[in-house]
Amino acid sequence: MTFREHYLDSTTHFRTQDCAACATRNLCTRSPRQARFFKLLPRDQHEALQKARAIHATEAGQQRYAQRAGIEGTISQSIRAFGARRARYRGLPKTHLQQVITAVAINVRRIVAWFDNVPKATTRTSHFAALAA
User: Fold this and answer.
1) Range of the domain at 10
2) What DSSP designation does 86 have?
3) Residue 72 scores a pLDDT above 50
4) Each residue of 38-57: pLDDT tens digit?
5) 130 is a domain residue
6) Which among 74, 86, 109 is positioned nearest to 94, based on CA atoms?
7) CB burial class (10 A; 0-12, 13-18, 19+) of residue 10?
8) Same domain, yes or no, for 96 and 76?
9) Do both 50 and 86 map to the same domain?
10) Coil, strand or helix: which one is 12?
């Protein structure tokens, strides 16, 4: 069984007659004609997802995720500000050198920003949240 066949087998459809008569249909689907459907993960994947969510809900999980968020910020900065998405050179030694120089450049930029008292960027506020505020 291919991944596509397995994924399509885990789709659950509701009957069109049941959805057409429902008073809260607009909360489930935006389609004017089709009934609601959704995809279910296989049991082992669903249980693994639930376990991961439970771990992330703990204090230790939150601390671990905070470390990851900092690392992802650094990776994002290297890509956006220093063009680290693609290597300029061929070969492992030159590519490694580019990565080391990029890391040094990030550190220099952060040190200069620290000396200039540049505040750290805040999390972006969505347009919807800005309207609510």
Assistant:
1) 3-40
2) S
3) yes
4) 788 888 888 999 999 999 99
5) no
6) 86
7) middle
8) yes
9) yes
10) strand
